[in-house]
Design a protein that fits this description.
7 helices, 74% helix, 170 residues
Length: 170
C-alpha cells in the first residue's frame, strides 16, 4: 500500500490495514475473512462519513466544493486507504466463497451418484402393467366431493350463469 495512505492512519487503523495484506489474508479461512471484511467495511464507512460530513461543512464556508476539497485531504486519504483494503478483502472472500461452493457442489454430486448407483439396479425394474389401471379411491381432502370442491364448483357455475345471461341479453 502507498506510504502516503498509511501515514494518514492511526496505529490501530494501520494494524487493521496490515491484516488485509495478501500474505495475511492467505492464512485466514472463509469465516475469519468474512469477519475481517465486516471490520474493514465498518472502518471504511466511518472514514467516508467523516470525509463527507467534513467536506459538506466546509462547502458553505469556502464557497464551493472545489475550494473546500483541498481542506479535507487527510480524511479523503483515510477513506481511500480503507477502500483499497476493502477491495483486497472482498476479492479474497469471493475466491474463498467460490472454492467453498465448488466443494459443496462436488460433495452433492458425489452423494447423488452414490445414491443412484447403490439404490436402483437396472435388472430388477418393475414391469409395466398392460391395459387400464384403476386409481385408488380418493378419501378425505382428496375426495371428489369435498366442501372446498363444492364451493368452487358453485362459484364456477354462478360465474358461467352470469356470463351466459349477459350474452343472452345482447
Amino acid at each position: 500500500m502507498n506510504k502516503t495512505l498509511l501515514a494518514a492512519l492511526t496505529p490501530a487503523e494501520r494494524h487493521l490495514v496490515a491484516e488485509t495484506e495478501t500474505a495475511a489474508l492467505a492464512l485466514l479461512d472463509e469465516d475469519e475473512t468474512s469477519a475481517l471484511h465486516t471490520r474493514v467495511l465498518r472502518a471504511r464507512n466511518k472514514a467516508q462519513g467523516v470525509y463527507r460530513r467534513g467536506a459538506s461543512g466546509k462547502v458553505a464556508a469556502k464557497g464551493g466544493r472545489g475550494k473546500a476539497s483541498p481542506q479535507n485531504t487527510h480524511a479523503r486519504t483515510k477513506a481511500e486507504a480503507f477502500e483499497e483494503a476493502l477491495g483486497r478483502v472482498s476479492q479474497r472472500l469471493a475466491a474463498l466463497a467460490r472454492q467453498s461452493a465448488r466443494e459443496l457442489r462436488d460433495e452433492r454430486l458425489a452423494a447423488a451418484a452414490a445414491a443412484k448407483a447403490g439404490g436402483v439396479s437396472g435388472a430388477t425394474a418393475p414391469a409395466k402393467a398392460k391395459g387400464r389401471t384403476v386409481a385408488p379411491k380418493r378419501t378425505g381432502d382428496r375426495s371428489l366431493r369435498s366442501p372446498a370442491s363444492e364451493k368452487k364448483r358453485a362459484g364456477n357455475q354462478g360465474a358461467n350463469a352470469r356470463w351466459q345471461s349477459k350474452r343472452d341479453a345482447r
